[in-house]
Amino acid sequence: MTSTCQGDWDCPSCPKAVDNAITHVIHQRGYHLSARKCEENFILFLLKGELLVNSQEYAGTMLNAGEFILQAVGSKFEMLAMSDAECIYYRFNQPELFCNFRFDHIMNEIPAPLIFSPLKITTELRYFLEGVKSYLCEPKICRELLTLKHKELAFVLGYYYSDYDLAGLIHPLSNYTNSFQYFIIQNYKKVKTVEELAKLGGYTVSTLRRIFTNVFHEPVYEWMLARRKEGILEDLNNSKISISEICYKYGFESLPHFSNFCKKSFGLSPRNLRHQQHKDDIIEK
Q: SUPFAM superfamilies, alphabetically (predicted)?
């Protein structure tokens, strides 16, 4: 049975309401956002005023009214309002903001620009943004409406901007996501906690968690725990490393602690896990 809106049409209170990913903001002259790593992807549309932005792509760039830029999750970004500035932020997690075929075509066939420049807001895109500003002003909005606006923006960008225009958005989006993944894969074995991993990458713990969830689609602690379990089983089953060495390799304080972890995670002690694998190997032979 299809659910419908009820009562006094208080959409923000509806169970289907979600946090609004499209926000209309006015920054007063002198507003300063200090340099920090972005916790999610966002497109910044400037409707009025001037913003001095600073990032790897837009180093010391003046963003003027009628222009927009994209900053990718994990990138470092700083901003100063040179005048009162009216902005619309569009936040998103995954690059499905763009057509998958178009995204792959641009990544593989269109080179990234040598110099990044803000894109102009077309008339059609301005119509979209003015509509957003007029009726998407609540902190929470209908999930279905947000999905429709998401698709509409993807259409406007895809239809009214060239491959070369979009290359300036898509390449940084892909590069930062890939670089974050590379950092995680290269370093998660070097640390024992989420806090240590965050410090190694120069992130706050909350920022690392948010970016990780956006990129890997699961919480960082659960992901690290799963990799830890995989490593333990691999070493127990397919190596000659002693159980004591495995215990301390994965940061356990004592053999009893390690044994309790294995029993809870796999149903057997480390010794029995290794013995079971040995029996299975004999049966296969």
A: Homeodomain-like
Q: Are 263 and 224 in contact (CB under 8 A)?
A: no
161 lies in some domain: yes
What is the Cα–Cα distance from 77 to 59, expressed in whole angstroms? Answer: 9
- Please give the Cα distance from 270 to 236 (Å, whole number): 7
E-assigned strand segments in the chain: 17-19, 22-27, 32-37, 41-48, 50-55, 61-64, 67-71, 76-81, 85-92, 119-120, 140-142
Clarify whether residues 226 and 167 are in a common domain. no
* CA distances to 74, 79, 121 from 55, in Å: 11, 9, 20
Q: Are residues 122 and 239 in the same domain?
A: no
Q: Are residues 165 and 232 in the same domain?
A: no
What does 38-71 look like in DSSP terms, one character per residue?
-SSEEEEEEEESEEEEEESSSTTEEEETTEEEEE
User: At CA 266, angle to CA 261 and CA 268, rounded to 5?
Assistant: 85
Contact between residue 59 and residue 16 where contact means Cβ atoms under 8 Å apart: no
Q: Using an 8 Å Cβ cutoff, are 72 and 175 in contact?
A: yes
Domain boundary among 149, 175, 201: 175
Tens digits of per-residue pLDDT, 95-143? Answer: 666 777 888 899 889 999 999 999 999 999 999 999 888 877 777 888 8
Tell me the residue length of the chain: 285
User: For the whole model, what pTM was predicted?
Assistant: 0.71
CATH code for the domain in which residue 155 is found: 2.60.120.10
3-state secondary structure of 83: coil
Q: Report pLDDT digits (tens) over 46-71.
A: 999 999 999 999 999 999 999 999 99
Structural domain for 227, as ranges: 222-284
